[in-house]
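Q: Is it fine to ask for two folds in a single conversation?
A: Yes, each is treated on its own. Send the first.
Q: Here.
A: Result:
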Amino acid sequence: MDANCISWTRKPRRGRSSCRIVISDDEVASSEANTSTRFSKGSPPSGFPKTNLENSLVALEADRLEHKRYVSLVQSLGNDQPGYSPSALSILHNEKIAPNEPPVVTWKFLDDSWTPNPPKPKEAETEAVEKELLPATSNSSVTITISDPSVEILSPERSDEHKPGLNSILAKRISQCPYCKDDFINKIKSKSERLRRRIEYFEDVALQKAKDAQAARMVYEESLFRGNLLYSKTRETYVPRSELPQLTAEQDSLFRKLISGPDSEVLVTKFHLDIKRSDIHTLLGSNWLNDEVINFYMNLIAERSQQRMTLLPKVYAMSTFFLPRLLDKGYDGMSRWTRNVDLFSKDIILVPVHVNKVHWGMAIVHMRDRSIRYYDSLGHCNDLVLVALVEYMQKESLDKRRRCFHHSGFLIENVPVSRIPQQTNGSDCGVFSCMYAEYIARDKPITFSQKNMNYFRQKMVLEICAGQLWS
């Protein structure tokens, strides 16, 4: 190689081969002579020499500027970060930067500059628009709002008018919020009123259905009572033999005080039972007694026998839920019901019977008198209950005493209406059943009748709230 030549090797790019450029001293001298000439602004003179070195530098610069413009465009449009801002018309015309298009290179020779590639008319128009929108003395930027399919270009003076601020966003949300509207309270009141009327309507419907059901049950019991009354008129020989004492003024005042007040108030707690005023109200007028009242009263009878063990028979009272479970589950489901009680050591076992959940009766097992009897104030027979109690006593004896229960000597009967008082309405069956148990548990003859039911209702209220029987 000639010693007066300059050798330059270009660093190879990925996927390309290396290039070696050799420039002679004559070409360098000719280039220096040309560059020393002062050119005016405009197009370059014809025949301007371009060497291989210059062409390589131009290619490198084009790649670098292309990459820089691409990164700046992505940052400005995607991440909203400061960087290269594309021209408005380039976005408007949806122009893309051609990857192989060389950038516009400005050659500076002394104080003058000229562009080898003059801008196209469209690019000149773009530059004019950019100069108009972005003055050199202003630091303002152009806000470009792009929406599909149209593009809106806003000037710096108009950008603040169209760009929503925090206050405007909050104001819009508040205006659209239903809770902040002027008629919100009125709408809530009207909705609450409609809901209240709907609830009242359903309450009235439920109350009417309850009244209709109660009336139907009363008609059913009245029909049973009339049939039983016609049958027993020729056979009834029972006559009450004594009168009951009247309530004192103090007892009557206490009774009125107990029945007045909120229904949910607990008046007495005993035997693991809470008696509320609503339970006491079942003893008023012609209401039907509920399970809580009858279970509490049966426990009072059993407690009295323990307190007066030398004077009264030993009494054990079953719950109102005993017999339904026995009929449903059998003895296997009831074996642990009396695990701590020896029934065969008792004289009397009281078993309340709720017939079809509309009528109360009383079954009593007399261990001392060797009898199992069913007492009903309407004169109905209940052989199913008697048979279930006999089988229960047999299995209980085998389980607890390991011996058979011989019931051959027991009298098993439905007590006839000629020996016990009968009700003359459809609501006092629960009171009759409790009084059957109370009289028999203290070995007293049954001497009451229908006319004593109001007295017994008041007496039971006072006894339950006091937690103790009077006699």
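Q: Second one now.
A: Result:
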Amino acid sequence: MASSRAILALCLLAAVLCPALSRPRPFPSLPVDGPRLLANGLSYDFHANSCPDLVDIVWPIVESAVLGEIAIAAGLLRIFFHDCFPQGCDASVLLTGPNSELDLPPNLTLQTRALQLIEDIRVKVHAACGATVSCADILTLATRDAVFVAGQSEVFYFYEMPLGRFDSLAPANSSDVFALPRPDADANTLIDSFKSRNLDPIDLVALSGAHTVGKARCTSFNDRFSEDSDFARRLAANCSSDANRLQDLDVTTPIVFDNRYFGNLIEGKGVFTSDKVLATDGRTQWAVKGLAENKWWFYSQFRDSLVKLSQFQPNGNVGEIRRNSCFATNGQSLEEGFAASA
């Protein structure tokens, strides 16, 4: 681990001394600190032999997409979370057809452009390596790379993600999808929900930091409109003419993945109730304050919490590698709505 920190220090020094230098791809991946105990079947070099160019294929596609539209980063982050939280990171959220998670209320506003990007990457990866990489692994890598680009290439974002997931054979149960945290959730509900997924309060706070590049429709936070605060009244006024208006969840730096979101929470400018309560509940307040004061702690904690979430496997690591489309199992016919290519 000491060597990893030394490499990181040199990379950071180079970035400071030569900020104008451009590079076609990010710095080499750095291992996550701490014990490298991984969930069943996962490893950091899982595709080293079967698809050695995997990172080099995924990276430029994601970089181009996010540089063209920062909202893609928020879209990928939300898809990743909505995939992993119900039954683990198995690309079940991508499936169309009967009982699709995409048809359930929590997922109706998942970004179609980000969903299609995952399939576009699969096509490129399978063309180069064959059907050796799952859609679940592609979503994991794409999400990591999107965060890196959205953070304006601060090297600390770029880290290894454990790989080797299988794609699910069926959508998650609707009850598990409805267990996704709601934007009007209180602190007890949030903490209990994350705890059931082996995530601690610090993970809850750090992962909520993904809202630094997110947007939400007014209908998702209209429970705030009756509150007696200047910020709530401003939210209500902004939404008064259009209930579907999109509101930045980070009201200060909405197009950069940074820690300013936490400063907003301290200032009473959290858009969702689920944002606001993080800054007022004693079990999370300390983390909000710390991450607001130290961006490097946020970057490293977000990394660790994302890696932790990516290993949630309540049903084990079982399934298949989808060969024809990320939107259909291998035995399923393709549905209309998203393009798919073999």
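Q: Anything structural to flag on that second result?
A: Two points. DSSP finds 13 helices and two strands in the chain. The chain has a mean pLDDT of 87.
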